[in-house]
Structures are given as C-alpha cells and as structure tokens.
Amino acid sequence: MAKYKMHVLVCGGTGCKASASDSIIEKFKSELTAKGLDNEVQVILTGCFGFCEKGPIVKVLPDNTFYTQVKPEDVAEIVAEHLVKGRKVNRLLYVDPKSNEHVSDSKHMGFYRKQIRIALRNCGFINPENIDEYIARDGYYAIGKVLKEYTPAQTIDIIKKSGLRGRGGGGFPTGLKWEIASKNAADQKYVVCNADEGDPGAFMDRSVLEGDPHSVLEAMAICGYCIGATKGVIYIRAEYPLAITRLKIAIDQAREYGLLGKDIMGSGFDFDITLRYGAGAFVCGEETSLIHSMEGLRGEPTNKPPFPAESGYLGKPTNVNNVETFASVPVIILKGAEWFASIGTEKSKGTKVFALAGKINNVGLIEVPMGTTLREVIFEIGGGIKNGKKFKAAQTGGPSGGCLTEKHLDTPIDFDNLIAAGSMMGSGGMIVMDEDDCMVSIAKFFLDFTVEESCGKCAPCRIGNKRLYEILERITNGEGTMEELERLRNLSLVIKDTSLCGLGQTSPNPVLSTMDNFYHEYLAHVNDKKCPAGQCKSLMQYVIEPEACVGCTACARNCPVNAITGERKKPHVIDTAICIKCGACIEKCKFNAISIK
Amino acid sequence: METIKLTIDNKPVEVPAGTSVYQAAKNLGIDIPVLCYMNLHDLGIENKPAGCRICVVEVEGRRNLAPSCSTTCANGMVVKTHSTRVINARRTVMELILSDHPKDCLTCPKSGNCDLQDMAVKMGVRNIPGQAYAEMSTYKTDFSPSIIRDMDKCIMCRRCETMCNDFQTVGALSGVNRGFSAVVAPAFEQDLEKSPCTYCGQCVAVCPTGALTEVDHTPKVIRALADPTKTVLVQTAPAVRAALGEEFGLEAGTSVTGKMVAALRQIGFDYIFDTDFAADLTIMEEGTELLTRLGKHLSGDKDVKLPILTSCCPGWVGFFEHNYSDMLDVPSTAKSPQQMFGAIAKSYFAEKLGKKREELVVISVMPCLAKKYECQRDEFKVDGNPDVDFSISTRELAHLIKEFNINFNELADEDFDRPMGESTGASVIFGATGGVIEAATRTAYEIHTGKKLEKVDFHELRGMEGIRSATIDFNGLPINIGIAHGLGNARKLLDQVRAGKTNYHAIEIMACPGGCIGGGGQPLHHGDTSVLKARTKAIYSEDTNKVIRKSHENPYIIKLYEEFLGKPMSHKAHELLHTHYFDKSSKDIFI
C-alpha cells in the first residue's frame, strides 16, 4: 500500500459538488500525475466540511491548510506552490472578518473554534465511498465490541446512561426507546432510520449520509442487536441522490466485509439494511406517517398509541431513529457513556448539528455542544449578521419552530430551554433574521410551508392552518382587524391542542412566537397599516421628496404603469392609486428623491 | 378480564381493558360528539382515523387534547369532556370544518339526514368567523350511473374509504392530494366510472354529509307518470318493504308492504308489481341451472364448473367482473330479478296489453344503488330500449311519497296487481343474506328428489356471520352450500374457490352487509346496525306469513311457463332470462 506524505481533501458534499468540486479533484489528479507526485500526494473526496458559505473547500494535510472558494483553475497554483514548494496560496485562505488576517489552519477559524464534532466526526475527513477509511477511524469497532462484550441490555444501558436524546426533533431518550422496543416480543422487528429530512434549509442528515454513511449503518446494526431486529430500513427522500448513491456503496461494502448480513463477525447475529425512498412529503418525517409510507400506504399519521415500538412497520415492533441520533451511537459505545454525558447540559447531553442559514455571514453546517448560547452560534461561529445589520431573531426547529430574539441570545441551547423560550430544537435548522425582516411576513412564510405540507388528515391542521394563513395575509395586506388578531391566537392554540400529529401540533409556533415577541409589529400592521420593516408591499407608499427631485423625468419614463407625472425640471408626483410598488423608479432616480414610507 | 378504573367528568367508571374513552363515557351516559368515528360492531367495521377532532377531551397530565374515539382508557385517568378548554376547541374545530363546507343545506340532498348538520345544530354554531374571505376547497362533481360524488362536501371522515377498502375490498376510494386539497377519490382523481367501483353504495350509506349521494331518478319517474302515451309499471324489491317505514318514523323492522302498494297506487302507477314475482322466476331458472350442472358433474362431466354462484346482486357481478375475470363461467347465467322482471314485462306482459315495448315504462324500487347501473347495461336493452327504464332507491321512493302529499302511516293496506304481483315466501327472503340460496334449496330439493319438502325453514342458512356454510341433505345427496355477504367476505370465499380448496356446490353472495336489507339505497342507519337485524326479522316473518312458500308453486309463474316460456332453461327462457359477463379487470390504470 502506498504511503502518502500529503493528503488533499476535497469536499464532495452536494453544495461543493454543484460548484465543480468534481473537476477540482480531476484537476488535482492530473496536475499531480504531470508533476510525478501521484505517489506522494493522495487526493481524497470527502463529505461536507460544513463551511458551505466558502465552498468549495480544499484542505491539505498534514498542515491542515484550509482553502476556500477554490475553483478548478486554482488547482495548478496550489499544486505548484503549496504541494511542490511548500508555500501556501494566501489568496485562497480564509480571511478573518474581524482581524482581516489570513487564517490557514481551520482550527483557528471562528467558524470551527467552538465546534465539537461527534455526529460529523468523519465528515470532511474520510472518503465516504471507502469503507477502509471508516474502519481506519475505528469504524465497525463499536459493533464488534458490542457483539463480543455486551448483552443487548448492557448496550441499551450505555445508551441510556449517555443521555442521548432523539435528534429528529422530539428529543425522546434514545436508550429508553430501544428498551421499549427490545421488550416487545415478536418474530420480526425492524430498525428504521429516518432520513426524510424536510425542514427548509436543513441538511444535517444529508451531510452525515453523504460524508459518513457507515456510521449510520453501524449504529443501526447495534440497535438491531439491542432490540432483537434482523432487518433495517433507511427511509430516505428521493431528492437526496448523492446520499442514496453513497449509502448503496456503503451497504455493498459492508456486506462484502461481512459487517452486514448473516452471522456478523461470527457472533451469530444477522442484520441487513435496505433503502426505501420517500417522495418528499414533510409529514413523512413523523414516524407513523413514515412507516405508512414505507408500507406503500398514503403517508399520513395515525394516532399513538400504538407506538411503533409496539406495532410499527408491517405491524411489527419498530424502532425509528433519526440519522444524527444513529451517527452519535458508535462513538458513545467506544468512548463510553460518561464521556458523552460530560458534554452538554444537565438534561441534554452531547452535541447538536445545526444548519445555519439566512442573514448570517457563515452559512453552513455546524456541530456544537448542547448548552452553547445562541450568541456564540450566531456571532462567533456564524460570524455575525450579513452586511453589518442588526440581529432580530433566529428561527429554530424548522417551519414548526419558533423564533428566538435578542433576549434569548445568552440562553444555553438545549431541548428544554428552547421549548421554554417558545421554540424547539427540531432537527436543527436555524434561520437568522435581521432588522429588515418583517416578523408577520416571516410567520406567513413558514405557515405557507406547513399549509402546503399538511397531509390533510385531521381538520385542525388541514383547514386551521389555511385559515391562519388567510388571516396573516389580511394583516400583511393592511386589512387585518384587532378581532382577527385575537382569533389568530385562539386558532393557533386550538390547532396545537387538537391536531393529530407533530406537524399540526407545532405548525402555529411561528405565529405564536412572533406574536409573543413582536406583537408591536402586528399592531403596527393592524392599527397603523404600516410594516415597520418595510417588507409588506401593500403597506408601502412610494413618495417623491419635492426638495430632492430635479425633474429629470427618469422615473416617469421608467414607470411601467405611468403612475408618475410632472413637468420637466419640476418636482414629480407619484399617484399612489396607480403605483404597483415595483421599485423601478427608485432604481432609476440618481438624486435619492424617492423613498418608501 | 382485566378492568380499568378511571374518572370521567368526576364520575368513576370501570371498563374492560382496551375500552376507548368515548365508549367508557357512553357507559356513563355521557355522549361525546363524534363525526368521523363509526362503529358497525355487528359487522366488525370500525372507522377511527381520529381525523375530525370533534371528540377531543381533556386528559389530566396530557399536554394536548385527546381524541376520545381512539384513546384507550388507562388506570387512574382523569377525563373532562366539557371543560372550557374542550368546548372552545371543539367549537373552533367545528367552525373550521364548516368554514370549508358549502352552505347550501336548503337544497342539499342530505338535508335533514346529515350528521354534520346535526352536529352544527347540537353545538349551536351561529356564525363562522372569517367566512367572507375563507377559501373553499373545490373539486369537480363526479356523476356515475349510480353515485354522485360532490367532494366539496367531503369532510375527510374516511368512512367511505373504510367501507370500500377494508370491508368491501373494492379499493375504489382512497385519500388523495394533501393539505387543504386532500380529498377522498379514486386513484389519480379519475371518475368513479373508470375505477373498479361496483356501485354497491356502501360509501353512500355511511357518508355523514352530502358528499356521496345517489343519482336521483324521481324527476324522471314524475315525467313518465305525466306522459299519457306511456303505461308505467313499477316493481318493488323484497328488502324495500322491510325498511321504507323507517323514513316515516316507524320502528325499524316494521313491514309496510300493503301501505307501500297503496302509496304507489296513489302516486299513479298503472301497474304495481312485485320484483318478488321475478325472484320466483329467478329460482326456477337458477335452481334448474344448478341441478343441470350438478347432474352433469355427478355423471363425471369434467367441463362443468361447480360451485355455481348466484348472480342476482349487481354489485357482486361488478365485483367479479373486475376481480375474478378468470372465473366468468362460474356464476349462474341467470339475470337478476330486476332484469328478469323487465324482460318479461316488456315481452310477455306487453303482448298481453297489446302494446309495444316502447310504450311501457318499467320502474324499479330497489334497496340498491348498483341496480341503477345494472338497468343501464347495454346487454339489458333491446334496440336501445332498456328492459328496466330506471331504478329508484328506497330513499327516493320515500321522497316521492312525501312530495305527493301522501300520509303514508294512515294508508290502508292494498295488494299488488296480477299477474306479476304474485309472489311466494321464497322470493321475499331474497332480501336477506342466505335468502336466495334458501329459496333455491326449497325448489331444487323438490325437483331433484321428487318429494315434498316438509320443513321449509333452513335456519342453518340464516344469520349475520360474514361467511357461512351448511350441508343440506337432498335425500341422501349432501349438497354443500356457502354464503357470504359483504364483498370482502366474498373475496375470501372466492379466493378459496379459485385455489380449488372448497367443495361447495352452490354459493350465494350479496355485496352488502346483511344482504339487500343493508343495501346502499336503504334508509340510513346512522351507525345503528340493530336496524339491519330488525329488517331481517321483518323479511323472515313476511315469509312465514305467506301461504305459498316455494317459488315453483307460484301459480302465475306456472302460468308464465305454460303460456310463454315453455320450461326453465328453454330457448326462450335463455333469450330473455339469461345473460353473460364481461372482463373488466383494469389492465391499464391510465385508461
């Protein structure tokens, strides 16, 4: 086997792939071959590094140099300068926005400094399509240890003691869930991995599956051993082609190595995994819906109990865990429950992966210990708000979460604190909003998603969310009344209280939490018919300041609906009854004479 | 049996383990309102999708409200069914449901008989906030030969789906689309006519709103009655008389044969005949066919298919045409009584009247919606003129009687007209599951053995069990009989026949629960299956009260053969009284 002196890691996550990381790899290989270095430097395609804002990412080992926004045409220079001459290519290094200095080692970057990577431990480090690399990182050692040293009950005990809670949103204690499934006797049981990640902007699970698929396979086998299941199914959305491809490769390789299939490691334990594709319904992330979808039925929830642990897939006891939950399991087995429990807060142990999105400088994927504050996440890891604007709120928990505001910035993030703050952990989406965002519109935006994604089975979710949306639309159009504001709250509370599944029970959260935290914005829309953030078109008026207008006629000539009149060299006027608020006049005015009021 | 103790509205109650909160409350005399929930206990059908959320209750210690229909009682549970929180939630949800429901109650065919309307009355909903700008979900109305689907009125209770899929195993209906557009429909939102629907009407029988209704033919009836150039005949099916009284407030199980005849005469039909007459005729043909096939079988003829399956139920015929197209030669070729009646009326009786068939209008009153479709089938037409012009349901007849200002309950009993109004006890029991085969047994026994049947009641063939079997001794020859009602049960039986695992000689199948008495065109039972049992009882007592109880002893049937048909299975009988079946298995779902 060749021994390489240096390694070039190129991100092969979906985002970087879309920015030509494939041809970056090709370029590296051909350059290295041309220079006769192909036996000295190994080029590896890895999973996501997380710092998607600055992708495609290329990392050079052993010196840990972190190149950002690399293009195929940069490769020749990296090879010639860095790999041959040992001189880093400064222009491709990350620039710290505060100090304005180049940071070469990712460990010293604000984005990575506070992160602890457990679920993402191998993402951006190993080649996900090569089982040997996973094994080299102690992969499949945990299942070996479990099969040789522990009984199922002992293993469950380790998971219980670790304090691991479900990462899919509910936060149910994983060990307890396994224990319940293990106690239900049946001729066949199932382990299901929920990879139907559906929150807008969230890609935690996708990154794990693309970057470290074996960790999930290994954990599912461990779970199978614990609950007495011989069959595992990964329910993954069909919109994740890369993750599917890598999972298929991983399953084949694991079977070839005897790590899946009959008599794993000579222990007598059988376990195999198949894939099932979801068609992209958000509600199928709910476990009963997911199971119905797997069975070929309409993806809609049923009342619990019975819980899947009693009667799940094909009526058999089934344990459903999320991708990130599974990805944390092998490490817990290897490093021990105490180690995992030492990270995090009292009731939320370990780490959590978040997908940072919205008006934040460092969009990407991060993993932080439970208990990290929102301030640390947004201002240190996330690099603060884009364009120096003011932070307004962060939406956590996806479309059915709530928003956290300035007063929550120093709250340690964990399952219980988020609920207390009127939001939830969810699967880990975090969307940051700045002063320009109208919170009524934000609530409307998220509700639009849940209206679309409701399965339609129960009346409060099917009809109620639609009615909430209609009221929000009236408010943002300036037609809302105080009575409707009251109804908005009551309806939200009833929908939460009466809906059948988690989707409806949480869908009004964005409305309630924006009403709780930004009620003045609602009042401004309803009473003053004004949108404080200037986002709601219906409530805006375009006005020409007569003092500033020189009468150049540029605005009038560009108005598509002829709403602007005025004589040459005299101040113009906008007829607000005709104006469609397209903004063309502002764009054309060279004298800043037009403003929105 | 383990029992559970809990408290509901401060009252302690003890129930068997597994009981729902809804049922436990009911035991205490607390009626929690339900909308989607339906429990047809006698038929083993329970619909509890927990989708309407009207039946929510407060359970101490639980975060959100619980649907009482599908929440199981637990020890120590403290339940409140009318706390402020519950009442507010229930009313708000009701307002939501109504906000997406058309407000055309005045003209809705379901008005006055609608579960949703009743619930709105019960809750005293007086206005629907935000209705002025509330968008409504709209769908195209689907007109099939029997059933109209006006899905704007669907509240997604899924009762129809449970009947169609779980009970009937027809699979024509399921939830489609999502969110606000979610609705119950055939696959790809095709028309019902393009689905494997059998028109059994069980979906209509359980729909709590006006979303699923029958095609109303009463205007056509009124037009025919008003046409001086037409002679209008009406025939009434056996099960109608056992249920019609319910529409006029009479107790379920009241037989109203005489009043029904009087009402029909008052409405103005020229001849009031009885489908029972044709049922006797069916027995002559089908019984003879059975004996012929049996005789050939016993003499070793390998080409003869046994068991013979009854074919009087059009829902069942549709079902095997769709699902058992490989077995089209197994059912009897005898037409249903409705169609035999039409064929004889427009030939034999028309001749007697000296009229052309086009001058006759034959109307049937049926407990059934599939009959509407059946009489429109092309093979039951002569030069485009149908043997039976249209079929109305028991419910439609009730409307007609009311519209014609007839005080039904005050009517004095009257008799059917002759010749086609005469019938035997054997034909009346066609209306209940097991009845057709019992009637056939009475006749076939006497023809086969040449002996008089002393005991005409075959209790072993009666009952409400979904699949039944019995062996009848034909003077030393054991005849194995199978019976199924409900198409799901039929499927189980048919699958055994297809696999060659049975030794039945004859099988009776009825599509609807309880047979025709539980048909899709009957007065709505609103979930009370004791109604079906009462109707069955009425049917059998009608039989007991008849003088003649065997089909082959009906004097007008004997006369019909003498004057017109010759003998059963004759060439003429074949031409008029027998049919053939079509392969309707959908090979291409996109057709």
Which helices and strands appear, and what pairs or packs with what?
The complex is a heterodimer of chains A (597) and B (591).
Chain A: E1 6-11, H1 14-18, H2 21-34, E2 41-46, E3 58-61, E4 65-67, H3 75-84, E5 94-95, E6 102-103, H4 110-113, H5 131-136, H6 141-149, H7 152-162, H8 174-183, E7 190-195, H9 204-211, H10 213-227, E8 231-237, H11 241-256, E9 272-278, H12 287-294, E10 318-322, H13 323-335, H14 337-341, E11 351-358, E12 364-369, H15 374-381, E13 391-396, E14 402-405, H16 415-420, E15 429-434, H17 439-453, H18 459-476, H19 482-498, H20 502-506, H21 509-517, H22 519-527, E16 542-544, H23 554-558, E17 564-565, E18 573-574, H24 584-588, E19 594-596
Helix pairs in contact in A: 6-10, 6-13, 7-8, 7-10, 9-11, 10-13, 17-18, 17-21, 18-19, 19-21, 21-22
Chain B: E1 3-8, E2 11-16, H1 21-27, E3 38-40, E4 45-47, E5 56-59, E6 66-67, E7 78-80, H2 84-99, H3 115-123, E8 142-143, E9 147-149, H4 159-167, E10 174-176, E11 183-185, H5 202-206, E12 212-214, H6 218-226, E13 231-236, H7 257-267, E14 271-274, H8 275-298, E15 308-309, H9 314-323, H10 337-353, E16 360-366, H11 370-374, E17 381-382, E18 385-386, E19 390-393, H12 394-403, H13 425-428, H14 435-449, E20 467-474, E21 477-485, H15 487-498, E22 506-510, H16 530-544, H17 555-565, H18 571-577
Parallel strand pairs in B: 1-7, 13-14, 13-16, 15-22, 16-19, 21-22
Antiparallel strand pairs in B: 1-2, 3-4, 5-6, 5-7, 8-9, 9-12, 10-11, 17-18, 20-21
Characterize the structure shown:
The complex is a heterodimer of chains A (597) and B (591). Chain A is an alpha/beta fold. Chain A has five domains: 6-108, Glutaredoxin (3-Layer(aba) Sandwich), CATH 3.40.30; 131-336, Rossmann fold (3-Layer(aba) Sandwich), CATH 3.40.50; 351-434, Ubiquitin-like (UB roll) (Roll); 439-527, de novo design (two linked rop proteins) (Up-down Bundle); 541-596, Alpha-Beta Plaits (2-Layer Sandwich), CATH 3.30.70.20. Chain A is 39% helix and 15% strand. Chain A is built from 24 helices and 19 strands. In chain A, the strands form six sheets. A five-stranded mixed beta sheet of chain A has the order 12-11-15-13-14, sandwiched between helices. In chain A, helix 6 runs parallel beside helix 10 (213-227) and helix 21 crosses helix 22. Chain A is globular. Chain A starts with 5 loop residues before the first strand and ends with a strand. The mean pLDDT of chain A is 93. Chain B has 591 residues and is α/β, with parallel strands linked by helices. Chain B has three domains: 3-99, Ubiquitin-like (UB roll); 105-214, 2-Layer Sandwich (Alpha-Beta Plaits), CATH 3.30.70; 219-577, Rossmann fold (3-Layer(aba) Sandwich), CATH 3.40.50.1780. Helices cover 33% and strands 15% of the residues of chain B. Chain B has 18 helices and 22 strands. In chain B, a hairpin with a 6-residue loop joins strand 10 (174-176) and strand 11 (183-185). The longest helix of chain B is centred in the middle third of the chain and has 24 residues, at 275-298. The interface between A and B is large, with 37 and 39 residues.
